[in-house]
Amino acid sequence: MAAARWLGAAAGLGGRFCRTMLKDHNLTTQQSFHQLAQKKPFLPSAVWHNAVRGMFIQTQDTPNPNSLKFIPGKEVLESRTMEFSTPAAAFCSPLARQLFKIEGIKSIFFGPDFITITKESEDLDWNLLKPDIYATIMDFFASGLPVVTDEAPRTDTAASEEDDEVVLMIKELLDTRIRPTVQEDGGDVIYKGFEDGIVQLKLQGSCTSCPSSIITLKNGIQNMLQFYIPEVEGVEQVVDDDDDLEKEANST
Predict the structure, then answer these.
(1) Which has the closest alpha carbon to 116: 87, 81, 89, 158?
(2) Per DSSP, which regions of the chain are E strands?
(3) pTM of the model
(4) Residue 213 in 3-state DSSP?
């Protein structure tokens, strides 16, 4: 019933959240919350093919110029996501550890079928980083090792018995409407809490340091949540302790 309610309501949005499908080398890209909020035309993402060792790796631009989405054509993390903001956080992933050995990589994000790499600064040229990234990804998948060795932490978007009706609706809307669109841009959004009408969310992947992250939260995610769930009064971004430390280091 909830899905039918959302679909019926969406029909009255006047196309506000319509998705434009762009076809390029059999890679489909959906119009993201960044683009919807900014209302600017966005060119189809570039796609790079590498046929070395029989493996094709596609690359797709993201709204964050410092993040690039790599699509190996193989399953990465099934239906879940994981973010590694530091080399120490990659203890459970042989692939992430290998990627962090490449100089200039700031963070790594695994999606169901893609890998988002964020570089340290705009001064670094992607053309210099890509060859090492391609080689590392190809060598890893050829090795047959698991992407993660330890069980991944439970994502907070999963429903629990303690959730009330409003929280369940928030999580369902995040999982069915919002997260798939954000993942198209190489990122993700994780539910962290709901208190006094405010939904607390954590942005991951390309969204973490994206200049459009606030626009994504306010003009994209917040507007959609408020449209379907009247109890939602606003959305705020939360960061982990590691993110706080990083911001302090960058400001000094």
Answers:
(1) 81
(2) 22-24, 27-29, 58-61, 67-71, 82-84, 105-110, 115-119, 187-195, 198-205, 234-237
(3) 0.71
(4) helix
Query: Both tokens of residue 135?
Result: 């080689």
Helix (H) or strand (E) holding 5: helix 2-10
Q: How far apart are CA 7 and CA 244, in angstroms?
A: 38
Angle between helices 165-173 and 2-10 (to 10 degrees): 60
**pLDDT tens, residue by residue, 67-105:** 999 999 999 988 788 999 999 988 889 999 999 999 999
Mean pLDDT in the chain? Answer: 77
Give the closest residue to 70 by CA, choosing from 131, 104, 26, 113: 113
What type of residue is 15? Answer: G
Q: Tell me: the pLDDT tens digits for 204-240?
A: 888 887 777 777 788 789 999 999 999 999 999 988 7
Q: Tell me the C-alpha to C-alpha distance, in Å, between residue 51 and each of 10, 24, 48, 73, 177.
A: 42, 18, 10, 12, 34
Supply the pLDDT for residue 53: 53
| Cβ atoms of residues 111 and 88 within 8 Å | no
- For residue 153, how many C-alpha atoms fall within 13 Å in the half-sphere facing its CB? 10
- Residue 250, SS3 per DSSP: helix
Residues 6+ apart with CB under 8 A from 49: 25, 56, 57, 58
CA distance 75 to 72: 8
Residue with tokens 């893609």: 114
